[in-house]
Design a protein that fits this description.
Elements (H helix, E strand, L loop, with lengths): L5 E6 L5 H11 L6 E6 L8 H9 L14 H5 L3 E5 L12 E4 L10 H22 L5
Parallel strand pairs: 1-2, 1-3, 3-4
Helix pairs in contact: 1-4, 2-4
Length: 136
C-alpha cells in the first residue's frame, strides 16, 4: 500500500452509495486517504436524498459528478469497495477488494436513506481504523 492509501468506491450509477462513501472517506480522516468514486453505468446527477442526508452530517457532496469506473482507477487503487456491482470490476492481483451489500438509495425517502448513510459511515470508520491505525 502507498504512503497515502487510495480507495475506490464503485456502485452502478455513482450517484448515491459510492458518492456518500467518498464524501465520508474524504471528510473523516481530513484528506489522509485519496478517494475515487466510480460507476459501472454512471447516472446524470447525484441523488438529491444522498446530498440531503450527507448535508445533515456537514458533508457536501452536491458538487459531485457521476463518473465511469475505469480499469486505470482500479489498477491505481489500494482498496476497491464495490456496492452492488462487484462482478464487473476488473481484478488486479495485490489489491484489496470488498463488496459492501448496501441498499440502493435511488427512489427512497430521506428517512430511508439515513440508515444507508449511517451504515456507510460505520463501514468507513472501520476501514479507516485498518488503513490509518495511528490516526483514527
Amino acid at each position: 500500500m502507498t504512503a497515502k492509501p487510495t480507495v475506490l468506491f464503485v456502485c452502478i450509477h455513482n450517484a448515491g452509495r459510492s458518492q456518500m462513501a467518498a464524501g465520508s472517506m474524504t471528510a473523516l480522516p481530513h484528506g489522509a486517504v485519496e478517494v475515487r468514486p466510480g460507476g459501472t453505468e454512471p447516472g446524470t446527477e447525484i441523488n438529491p436524498m444522498a446530498i440531503a442526508v450527507m448535508a445533515e452530517e456537514g458533508i457536501d457532496i452536491s458538487q459531485g459528478v457521476p463518473q465511469l469506473m475505469t480499469t486505470e482507477a482500479v489498477r491505481d487503487s489500494d482498496v476497491v469497495i464495490t456496492m452492488g456491482c462487484g462482478d464487473v470490476c476488473p481484478i488486479f492481483p495485490g489489491k484489496r477488494y470488498e463488496d459492501w451489500e448496501l441498499t440502493d438509495p435511488k427512489g427512497k425517502s430521506i428517512d430511508e436513506v439515513r440508515p444507508i448513510r449511517d451504515d456507510i459511515k460505520a463501514r468507513i470508520t472501520a476501514l479507516l481504523a485498518e488503513l490509518l491505525p495511528a490516526t483514527v
